[in-house]
Please model this.
Amino acid sequence: MAESVRVRFAPSPTGHLHVGGARTALFNWLFARHHGGASLLRIEDTDRDRSTDEAIHQILDAMTWLGLDWDREGPEDDGAYAGYFRQTSRLETYRAHAARLLIEGRAYRCYCTPDDLDARREAAQARGETFRYDGRCRDAAPRPGVPAALRLRIPDTGTTIVPDLIHGDVAFDRATLDDWILVRSDGTPTYNFCVVVDDVTMKITHVIRGNDHLSNTPKQILCYEALGYPQPVFAHIPMILGPDRKRLSKRHGATSVLAFRDEGFLAQAMVNYFARLGWAHGDQEIFTRDELVRLFDIRQVGSTPAIFDRVKLEWLNQVWMKKLAEDPEGRRRLATQELAPYVERLGIAAPREELLLATVVNLGERTRTLAEMAEQGRFYFVAPTGYDPVAAGKLLRPATAAHLDRLLRRLDGLDAWDAATLEGAFRQLASELEVKLVDLAQPVRLALTGRMASPPLFGVMADLGRDEALRRLRALRQAVPGA
RNA sequence: GGCUCCAUCGUCUAGCCCGGUCUAGGACACGGCCCUCUCAAGGCUGAAACACGGGUUCGAAUCCCGUUGGAGCCA
Model:
């Protein structure tokens, strides 16, 4: 690409950053980073009734969490998140462009009131026709003092082509388009007009956005032409749908990116998942951020809408938790940065780092989210407060008592307290008692973790330490009736 | 309703642009087996798709047309 790439992500701050928006943001970011270009952020807050600062911060928080940093060219007016553009701070620019179009005759004042328009629309419908503005004010005499909307004068005939990186050339018959409103009679600029003016003045080279904007694009292209500005390259990426194939929304459960963070998903897993929605690189499923930047190619993005599959996301999250736990550095970060807050949320203050590490190492392959990991790893930090009722019913019987007593004596006599030694002792005793290892192990597992399922028992005993392990064993022994 | 987009296993997708290598590949989920102190993870394995109908062609998942279905935008 000859000129340097400049893209933008343009959310409207009327709610949280949802899954679809995040994927759009990611594709823009990847495209920019891949080409060494700039990635800008524009907040489309012209709908003042529905836009809130709260939403802006949530969106920025989510983007920061996902690691989608933007190039800071905008005003430095918002602390940590500075450097983005707000449409409401650009109203003067829209006004100037509107004035120019009016003077040059590319736009005209329309005195039709909303009521007029509604009536004409209904009449058209009654006749079974599709209503389009008929251009009746194109040559209307100026009526000073009368509120007027500003409409773009578009050609009556011909075809407007939207050249699109993903869909190829998409043709729209201009006869199906009409002279659309640039500025409402109350003076507020419309969405499509702001977008064009913004993209032009921000020197955006590639507009990467959701497919839901494709239908608006011919109107925008006509506006570029009226303004005499070059068009950016368009890429309309397929939308993300819910399991019912409808546009993804709250009805489908969590769609807010921050909600996923809250549930204990890793940003890396989210990014990996989003990238694979609509894009693929052969058979590869797991991508690091760097790999994505290197391999991402917008032209390889498919054109089919994708259904959001939480189960696969969960799988990816597990893969990433396991992956991070593999090397010392990742393990430490996963334990102290990612997992710790979830453990603390369980009411465990200042969890010890070595236990956090043990949790991460052992529960990474057993759980799918950090919240789940904390929950299932709780026993590392605190003794069980009760036993799984089914297991208790099965295991807390007199027959177990004798075995436990033998075991306790055996463990007391151990010089070392490591997984290998413990396993040896258990196996030895099991064969002496002529029982299966599992029969000896399960009561102990219940004592230490409160559950029937846990990470490998001997590792758990070692991680807990001799004193704590024996304490929990004796506690269970007390609970065994008889003997 | 008008316009536009989309159509490969239940889901994400590879293949489609540059027809033959496709008895259509991978992944998630699901079943079986192995491993095993539990649960997982892992390994092996099974079931599972080119929406339909016409063309074009020696040959179509791949190109063209239509139908059906889904979605989005505008109203």
